[in-house]
Amino acid sequence: MTHAHHPARVAVVGAGNIADAHLQALRAHEDQTTVVAVVDLDADRAVAFASRWNVPAAYDDLPEMLAAERLDLVVVCTPPAAHHDAVVACLDAGVWVWCEKPPAVSVAQYDAIAAHERDGGPYVSYVFQHRFGSAARALREQIRTGALGTPLVGVCHTLWYRDDAYYDVPWRGTWESEGGGPAMGHGIHQMDLMLSLLGDWTEVRAAAGTLARDVDTEDVSMAIVRFASGAMVSMVNSVLSPRETSYLRFDFTEATVELSHLYGYDNSHWTWTPAPHRAGDGPSALGAPADDLASSHAAQLGHLLAALREGRRPEASGADGRRTLAFIAALYESAATGRPVTPADLTPDNPYYHAMNGPAATAPSPDADKEHASA
């Protein structure tokens, strides 16, 4: 655990595109962090990244780096299938972790990682930066206190566009390496924000399809979700939508609150509309915040660093981080089976606990069947 006057010593694992966003966030907190190393299996890429960001040391082996450097925090920016091994290695070395989404490629992997945490730290937190803008924080408090009345109806749309060339990257669009399609890699941010605000879900009914992209996973999914509060939400996750938007809507008895943005928001992206019986109330009366902190990696990092200094579990960690991944597993199970799925269904004897594509993860491919038949 670091002290306020000792900046956290940080290393980055994975020097791909998303790592640059994390360096920008770390630079925004340069009074509290010192980036001392980068690791990538591609040694040349690690060296180039270190040079670009003036990082003192570059490695191509994570255990070697963990043994050589005295660290407080490691930022894991690898492809999803590599999250488990990297996070576990860091936790076992006594180092806190901030890991990119999705947390893992299965709920089973998530639970296996959590077993390596210890009371007081090290902990692993996952990148769900959309929770941390000032408007989302304000709405969360309004929901907690009941100031807007009962949550009734919600909309959660991630309508994005990814062309065929996007999926030329070998690990994209596969169950094994990415863990799923847009529900795991794209819509996960809006779904996490929705879940962090509305709380526990109780049932999901879903459908999914592969309509246009040459991928193993889905390229679109839809779901109807019930929450413990009684609220009902419709969700869409797409990578087939030329006019891209991320849209969340919450209808309460006292107001409608909407967020329309793409990859990040500030207060200007939110709309607060009173119910007719409160027609005279403006946004501030409904709970819109006066401060305007945009959603960003830097915003979440600030909360994580405070937790690190205090030795307490951060947000988007533990059960709070698991809820979104478990929801996605349930979405995939419902889409595949045509049945509603509840949290109680996601037990270790359920194949969707172990892989987002459930029994298909261990089933032989049609080509393998043909080869066996012709042997």
From TrEMBL:
Organism annotation: Streptomyces pimonensis
Descriptive protein name: Gfo/Idh/MocA family oxidoreductase
Annotated spans, Disordered: 353-375
Gene3D superfamilies (alphabetical): Dihydrodipicolinate Reductase, domain 2, NAD(P)-binding Rossmann-like Domain
InterPro entries associated with the record: Gfo/Idh/MocA-like_OxRdtase_N, Gfo/Idh/MocA_Oxidoreductase, GFO_IDH_MocA-like_dom, NAD(P)-bd_dom_sf
GFO/IDH/MocA-like oxidoreductase domain segment(s): 137-257
Top-level division of the source organism's lineage: Bacteria
A Pfam family this chain is assigned to: GFO_IDH_MocA_C3
Span of domain Gfo/Idh/MocA-like oxidoreductase N-terminal: 9-121
